[in-house]
Amino acid sequence: MSAPAYSHLFTRLRVGPLTLRNRVVFSAHLTGYAVEGLPTEQHAAYYAARAKGGAGLIISEEHAVHPGDWPYEKVIAGYRPEVVAGYRYITDAVHTHDVPILAQINHNGGQGSSMYSRRPLWAPSAVPDPLFREVPKALDQREIRTLVDGYARVAEHCVWGGFDGIELQCSHSSLVRSFLAPATNLRTDGYGGSLGNRARFLLEVVAVVREAIGPERALGVRLAGEDLFDGGVRLDEAVEVAALVEADGRVDYINTSIGMATETLHMIEASMAVPRGYALFIPNAIRQRVSLPVVGVGRFKDPHEADRALAEGHCDLIGVVRGQIADPDFAVKALAGEEAAIRTCLACNQECVGRVGLGRWLGCVVNPRAGKESTPLPEPTIRGRRVFVVGGGPAGLKAAATAAQRGHRVTLFERANAVGGQVRTAAVVPGRRELLDLVLDLEAECIRHGVDVRTGTEASAEFVAQGCPDVVVLATGARPQHPRWAGTPGRVVDVRDVLEGRAHPSGTVLVVDELGFHQGTSMAEFAADAGCVVTICTPGMIVGQDLDITLDFEGWNRRAHRKGITQMTDVVPTGCVAVAGDRLAVTLLHHPTGRSTRFVADWVVSSAHQRPEDELWKALSGSGIETHRVGDVLAPRRAHSAIIEGEQVALSL
């Protein structure tokens, strides 16, 4: 295999004692796969899949160095000797594919919670984190020595467990970062004040970890490059810290990061609303100062983008996390010239960042196998069945592609002139256009595996029966419902009516957000961009409350302010009547107080729950044809449910 299109991405690089076969790094990130503080078989299968898929270097999720650092339920307790057996299972699985794997070790400091440990948090100073709002205990000299020894102990466990080296997390959620940042380090002893003093703890940890792992293993430091708030780590000081690390002589590479995991979390794992490569200015600045290899990050979903960043000299290695969660074979496919077959990360953050943030194990909207690598797929019950899939949204496309890949003869019918369903509709909105990659990838997958895709075709019960299928998979989706409170005025429309071109609001627009996700906020922005004066209201305490899970909340609020969108909370629409001049008066009940007000608008756009489009399901009941429902026709939900169910039904055939 060769990759003539990539002049840098697939070249070798020496990193300390390691020689990497390419520049693609599967950087550290939380997975939620630990059980009672110990690594699992799922960890091993997860990392091994990315090693098999061509990554040049894998860095595991963080391992805690002290019992007092238990910031979330499923942290790996690296200080416990019992972890070594699990470590060995992970490293053996990865080494089978001749790929090195490093262990990231960390203490989260004040960026955590005492909920699990029942111990006070430790930090350089008694400064509470803005998210967790818990005042930590300022470390004394004895406790600092205890933590330094803890880093050494965990590094030793990692050596026993077969890791090829250590990465120290000194970035977005780290005790080391809080020593470096002026806002969280108010000390007046040798660990505070000047930058040299604030970097003292980092260099002490570097020294003991290097001693623990010896010269034959790699040691890296992941630095916060820019925290993006006053008093946080700033780029100029980050560059100076990198120079101090290099001058120390014990470190083999520097990894980079942007944002702080609570104050500016939305910039660490940025959503699709943030431009790709947005953080490259950080490794660029550090690389100009140091000669150590530097890892760059910043939402790389395309191997060409990664190669370009290397070619332009921004960094020496590229961290591709979500891109390799979405497709473990990211690197192998690029190397083989099969870029079109790469399953593209959407940066939707729903099943990776969002799920882990809710305390669940990591998954992926576009890759339902993520998080289940250790579970083998079932064999087809009967090969070569004739399968009809009705509906070309995500659920139908996934069912069709998977069924065809497993040897069935599949025909997909879509009544619209293009596949994609509501995902294609949602992608109309600026800032959400990368959603279309989900449709394009699934459509291409269907074609590669021989699915007969027929658009512009309405599939009635009679039509289906005449085709004599062995199995029918219904993915007919859902349709909007007219709100009960809306009465009969014609200018009360659904979000889909606007985005699909059936309605064209103008003037003053009220968006009623009952879903708390992208539908309402996207509509508000869409209308504002079209010149409308927009107000968005919700029964919730905040507009778009679920955007916080996907790290879209901050971006939405900033854009809403910039576009002049007014937000109203804690209100429930109870009625709507036409008033003079074809305008609408909506009665809004402020449910905390019971007071009602009238809001007058030219148009009202509803973002509300939909109704399953299940007429064909009912018509086929009793027909004797094996029939399954997937996605919104079963119950209207989000895209990840559609993808999971599409795959599950195909695997069951």
List its salient traits.
3 domains; 653 residues; TIM Barrel; FAD/NAD(P)-binding domain; eight-stranded parallel beta sheet; Rossmann fold; five-stranded parallel beta sheet; alpha/beta
Inertia-based shape: globular
Query: Structurally, how many domains make up the residues?
Result: 3
Strand percentage lies at 15-25%
CATH fold group of the largest domain: TIM Barrel
Q: Biggest sheet, open or closed, and with what strands and sense?
A: 8 strands, parallel
Catalogue the unreliable spans.
Answer: none
Structure, described:
With 653 residues, this protein is an alpha/beta fold. The protein contains 21 helices and 27 strands. α3 packs parallel to α6, α7 (235-248) crosses α8 (281-289) and α13 (394-405) packs parallel to α15 (436-448). It is globular and about 75 Å long. The two termini are 35 Å apart. 53% of the residues are buried.
Fold blueprint:
Blueprint: E1 13-15, E2 18-20, E3 24-26, H1 41-52, E4 57-64, H2 83-95, E5 101-106, E6 122-123, E7 137-138, H3 141-160, E8 165-170, H4 175-180, H5 195-198, H6 200-213, E9 218-226, H7 235-248, E10 253-258, H8 281-289, E11 295-296, H9 303-311, E12 317-319, H10 322-326, H11 330-335, H12 353-357, E13 386-390, H13 394-405, E14 409-414, H14 421-426, H15 436-448, E15 452-455, H16 461-466, E16 471-474, E17 478-479, E18 492-494, H17 495-499, E19 508-513, H18 518-529, E20 533-537, H19 553-562, E21 566-568, E22 571-579, E23 583-590, E24 595-601, E25 603-607, E26 611-612, H20 615-620, E27 626-629, H21 639-652
Parallel strand pairs: 3-4, 3-12, 4-5, 5-8, 6-7, 8-9, 9-10, 11-12, 13-14, 13-16, 14-15, 16-27, 18-25, 19-20, 19-25, 20-21
Antiparallel strand pairs: 1-2, 17-26, 22-23, 23-24
